[in-house]
């Protein structure tokens, strides 16, 4: 059995950071196990290739939730990255840190070292913002952050004008002094290519002699001696293998796979594990519990003149933007699907924004035969204004179904399962219509396509967003951080309560979901987690 100082399970947003930072000094050897394959694929590297990756089993786990009463009984599609870089290789690249209050709440819950003042230096160290460094932004870091103000479709400016007419302020930098308001999203790209965690961190680390990355390597069990993690069992190309960790095993497999691997290894809800015939090493009901996620919906409109639909749908348009991208690394294919957005409060009495907006200068209502809607723009000038809740009170869980590590776990999202979540979503969709009714937008709109003008009553609006809402791909908190094992899985230094030599360092440790997209915060968790691991070495 070969021994490495550290075994990192998962090469995603946090795992890639761990590999780079733990190996940088040359003192330690690092093994990274990735269940997926290479990220050197055209549609992974091309930003708008996101749509092609959305259902591709070559790079995507393609999870599915249990039928959800809160979503009118729909079983929601949950894409997660199964590739070097993890979900940072297939996401929409919107670079949002979250609100100051989010992290101050993390610290207030008994997690020292995780306040906004604590995490801000990590965010700045990670970033290479093309706008340059200031009190909030970082420059010179591994992740290049692109400002898209001069790159987005002109219709985005019309959206911003309408949002301001509806009472929202213009925010030039969501990662600056305040999150609230509307503006153009920053994205993690560089020279027209996706700046995934693999590109920023893992690829540089792979050039070092003390780093080994194994792809198509599915971790099946954590190996223990007593209550100390000492290695990993995994399957690769039909063979079962084991590797030993001389110092620590670090789970960076994400909010689905980290709790799954813990449960398969005897760490989790005791009754569940016993019923499945798994020996219980450590009973902790929080493993896989406390699942939180953002839920979103789009309102789609037909416009009076061309949107991106008219260039992205016809063959000649695809050829044009394809040539633009291949030759110049510019144009629509070099950007995210979400060009603009913002954050607002459904009730002015709230202390911070509770809703996020997304603007897309194209629409995908009508799919081609046999194709999913996200892939083909509509034949008419369309655009969408979307939204998602920022701090939902609904909670779900992720639990294994059997001892078989290849069987997908049972995902119970419980979306929109509380009255508070339903009430704020109702207020939010009404506000989307308010934005659309403002002069800057209404003069451009021919008609509302979805949900359509016939949907007006509160009951009908609720029925509509239950039927059409779904995840915006931000599951967190299934191995949440906290000072007590009765309410958490890891402590403030991300060590699994009750065990030695084992940490979880990924989005699953969030004590509470943050306000906005979760990729940048997950990379930050990897950065700070690596600092803690290195500080704790003797």
Which secondary structure elements does this structure contain, and how are they paired or packed?
Elements: E1 3-9, H1 15-23, E2 30-33, H2 42-45, H3 50-53, E3 63-64, E4 77-78, H4 100-108, H5 116-126, E5 127-129, E6 143-145, H6 155-165, E7 181-184, E8 189-190, E9 193-194, H7 197-206, E10 211-214, E11 217-225, E12 228-236, E13 239-251, H8 254-264, E14 267-268, H9 270-275, E15 282-283, E16 295-303, H10 309-312, H11 315-328, E17 340-344, E18 355-360, E19 382-389, E20 397-399, E21 410-412, H12 419-437, H13 439-442, E22 445-450, H14 458-468, E23 470-471, E24 502-504, H15 519-535
Helix pairs in contact: 1-7, 1-15, 5-15, 12-14
What's the quick description here?
The chain has helices at residues 15-23, 42-45, 50-53, 100-108, 116-126, 155-165, 197-206, 254-264, 270-275, 309-312, 315-328, 419-437, 439-442, 458-468, 519-535, and strands at 3-9, 30-33, 63-64, 77-78, 127-129, 143-145, 181-184, 189-190, 193-194, 211-214, 217-225, 228-236, 239-251, 267-268, 282-283, 295-303, 340-344, 355-360, 382-389, 397-399, 410-412, 445-450, 470-471, 502-504. It is α/β, with parallel strands linked by helices and 538 residues long.
Structural summary, described in words:
This protein is an alpha/beta fold and 538 residues long. The protein folds into 2 domains: 1-61 and 77-144 and 194-293 and 474-538, FAD/NAD(P)-binding domain (3-Layer(bba) Sandwich), CATH 3.50.50.60; 149-184 and 295-389 and 417-468, Cholesterol Oxidase, domain 2. It has helices at 15-23, 42-45, 50-53, 100-108, 116-126, 155-165, 197-206, 254-264, 270-275, 309-312, 315-328, 419-437, 439-442, 458-468, 519-535; strands at residues 3-9, 30-33, 63-64, 77-78, 127-129, 143-145, 181-184, 189-190, 193-194, 211-214, 217-225, 228-236, 239-251, 267-268, 282-283, 295-303, 340-344, 355-360, 382-389, 397-399, 410-412, 445-450, 470-471, 502-504. Strands 1, 2, 10, 11, 12, 13 and 24 form a 7-stranded mixed beta sheet that branches. Strands 7, 16, 17, 18, 19, 22 and 23 form a 7-stranded antiparallel beta sheet that branches. The longest helix has 19 residues, at 419-437. It starts with a strand and ends with a helix. The mean pLDDT is 96.
């Amino acid at each position: 059995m070969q021994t490495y100082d550290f075994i990192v399970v998962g090469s995603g947003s946090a795992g890639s950071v761990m590999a780079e930072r733990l190996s940088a000094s040359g003192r330690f050897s690092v093994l990274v196990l990735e269940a997926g394959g290479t990220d050197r694929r055209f549609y992974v590297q091309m930003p708008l290739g996101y749509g092609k990756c959305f259902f591709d089993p070559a790079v995507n786990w393609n999870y599915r939730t249990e039928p959800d009463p809160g979503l009118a009984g729909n079983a929601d599609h949950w894409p997660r990255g199964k590739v070097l870089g993890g979900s940072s290789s297939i996401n929409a690249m919107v670079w949002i840190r979250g609100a100051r209050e989010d992290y101050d709440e993390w610290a207030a819950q008994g997690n020292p070292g995780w306040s906004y003042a604590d995490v801000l230096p990590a965010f700045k160290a990670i970033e290479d913002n093309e706008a340059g460094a200031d009190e909030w932004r970082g420059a010179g870091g591994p992740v290049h952050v692109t400002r898209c103000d001069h790159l987005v479709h002109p219709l985005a400016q019309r959206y911003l004008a309408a949002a301001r007419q509806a009472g929202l302020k213009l925010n030039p930098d969501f990662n600056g002094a305040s999150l609230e308001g509307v503006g153009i999203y920053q994205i993690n790209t560089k020279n027209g290519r996706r700046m995934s965690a693999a590109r920023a961190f893992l690829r540089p680390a792979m050039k070092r002699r003390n780093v080994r990355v194994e792809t198509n390597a599915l971790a099946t069990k954590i190996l223990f001696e007593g209550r100390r993690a000492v290695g990993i069992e995994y399957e690769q190309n039909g063979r079962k293998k084991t590797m030993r960790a001389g110092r620590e095993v670090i789970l960076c497999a994400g909010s689905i796979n980290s709790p799954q691997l813990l449960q398969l290894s005897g760490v989790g809800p005791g009754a569940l594990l016993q019923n499945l015939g798994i020996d219980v090493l450590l009973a902790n009901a929080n493993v896989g519990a406390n699942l939180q996620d953002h839920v979103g919906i789009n309102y789609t409109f037909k416009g009076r003149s061309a949107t991106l639909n008219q260039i992205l749908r016809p063959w000649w348009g695809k050829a044009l933007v394809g040539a633009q991208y291949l030759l110049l690394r510019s144009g629509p294919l070099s950007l995210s699907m979400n060009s603009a957005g913002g954050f607002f409060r459904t009730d002015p009495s709230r202390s911070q924004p509770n809703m996020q907006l997304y603007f897309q200068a194209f629409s995908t209502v009508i799919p081609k035969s046999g194709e999913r809607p996200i892939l083909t723009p509509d034949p008419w000038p369309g655009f969408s204004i979307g939204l998602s809740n920022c701090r939902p009170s609904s909670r779900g869980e992720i639990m294994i179904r059997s001892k078989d590590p290849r069987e997908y776990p049972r995902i119970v999202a419980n979306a929109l399962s509380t009255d508070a979540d339903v009430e704020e979503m109702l207020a939010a969709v009404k506000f989307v219509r308010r934005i659309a009714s403002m002069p800057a937008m209404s003069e451009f709109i021919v008609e509302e396509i979805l949900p359509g003008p016939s949907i007006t009553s509160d009951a009908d609006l609720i029925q509509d967003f239950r039927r059409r809402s779904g995840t915006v791909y931000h599951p967190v908190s299934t191995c949440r951080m906290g000072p007590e094992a009765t309410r958490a899985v890891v402590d403030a230094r991300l060590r699994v309560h009750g065990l030695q030599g084992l940490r979880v360092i990924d989005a699953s440790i969030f004590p509470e979901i943050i306000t906005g997209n979760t990729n940048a915060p997950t990379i930050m968790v990897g950065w700070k987690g690596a600092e803690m691991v290195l500080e704790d070495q003797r």
